[in-house]
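Thread: quick sanity check before group meeting

JM: Hey all, I'm pulling together slides for Thursday and realized we never actually wrote out the predicted structure for the chain we discussed last week. Dropping the sequence here so it's in one place. If anyone has concerns about the input, flag it before I start.
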Amino acid sequence: MAGPESKDRPKSDATTASTAVAEDATRYVGTPAIGTSKAAAAAGVASIGPENSQLNERRRRLVWCGVTGFLGAWFIAFLRFFLPRTLFEPPTVFKIGYLSDYALGVDTKWQQKYRIWVDRTPDRVFVIYARCTHLGCTPDWKASENKFKCPCHGSGYDSEGVNFEGPAPRPMDRAHVELAPDGQIVVDTSRLYQWPKGQPSHFGDPGSFLQV
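JM (edit): ok, ran it. Output follows.
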């Protein structure tokens, strides 16, 4: 049979536990950070919030870079919508110097800039438009063979641009030429003279050559 001491012991233990809980609750009142405070941990609330680490910092930078790039692309597209869509092409009318600047034969110094060759014979100067009449490629001048050779499909032209081999259907075109008041040769590649297959040639028309 239990004595008086054994009946009072549970009540004393319960009182002690209640006092300890009250003290802990009082101790953590007013703590600002729930996720990191001892009170939250004691109440069973998990710690939340990203760690201030270099990895998170890099992720934030990457996200901002992506957002900035996306907005920048849209801004450029927005501006491009209101800008005129123009193509910048070389002029079709230009000067190429004087008759005395050219010796007999084919001169290729204007090929890259204007896509032309200047051809001088004993009695005339004319300008060949450097475009193959097969599919529009630019032939190469083969000085050692005295002919133009198209690198695309093998069309061959003599020194005056007249076709003699390959699939080219007709000679290459010639550009309009005239002398300016200062004596220079003026070329107009918007005005071309042709020799259509099976038809009369226009290579003798006024403006297709300059008399020397």
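AS: nice. The longest strand covers residues 185-193. The helical segments are 4-27, 38-43, 54-82, 111-114.
JM: adding both to the slides.
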